[in-house]
């Protein structure tokens, strides 16, 4: 419940950012730069979490940054989950040389460092929101493929699948009717943990100038901007870091609960 409450709160803050944000996240005012938390400026309003080096309100940028982080995370998880599940089911149910080829591709993917892959994609494509999603999705499909393939190999030999094949059911019907429903719970659990990883990776890419580009608000970008002011303006990097920490912790707690709920073996 704590994880669900955290994820729901972050999601609401992101969705309702245009209504809840006290200031325009892109509005600059050098006269109010690096103001500490709980600062009130006559005629300019209050800054609950302070301002950054350009006088922009940190709370407003955190809210809008939540929209970016969650949108990228969910999009990358969806794309990688669909593709990885497809590869795992096709390889596990089909077997033979096709399975060998798909798994060798997965091995190559696992052997390639994430940062190296991100640098290669960034060198070919411009660092935009869409390209960041592509980079994260490319790095995440292997987890689904490996787990779903292992699960599919067991299901392929299950009695109810063999009975369906004996009754004349096609492979497509067996996959749609029996395999996919039995791997769905596993994919949901993987997706919950991968969502947290995607938020961290997106922040890391943005921190390395390979992700979201300024002036678009993002948690990783705020860490990048604030690293030079850590000793003089602790709030600049502390609050974005806490936002990442709390969000990832909430998603992990929620994912752990989903695993307990969807895995019947744990109740035995």
Describe the fold and architecture.
The protein has 268 residues and is an all-alpha fold. The chain has one domain (2-267): Orthogonal Bundle (MetI-like fold), CATH 1.10.3720.10. The protein has ten helices and two strands, in the order ααββαααααααα. The model has no long low-confidence stretch (mean pLDDT 86).
Total number of helical segments? 10
Q: What's the end-to-end separation, in Å?
A: 23 Å
Average pLDDT figure? 86
**Dominant shape:** elongated
Say what the CATH topology is.
MetI-like fold
Q: Summed up, what is this model?
A:
The protein has ten helices and two strands, in the order ααββαααααααα. With 268 residues, the protein is an all-alpha fold. Strands 1-2 form a two-stranded antiparallel sheet.
Write the layout of secondary structure elements.
Elements (H helix, E strand, L loop, with lengths): L1 H14 L1 H4 L18 E3 L3 E3 L10 H37 L1 H16 L2 H11 L4 H28 L2 H8 L4 H37 L11 H8 L7 H29 L6
Antiparallel strand pairs: 1-2
Which tags fit this structure?
268 residues, mainly alpha, MetI-like fold, elongated, two-stranded antiparallel ribbon
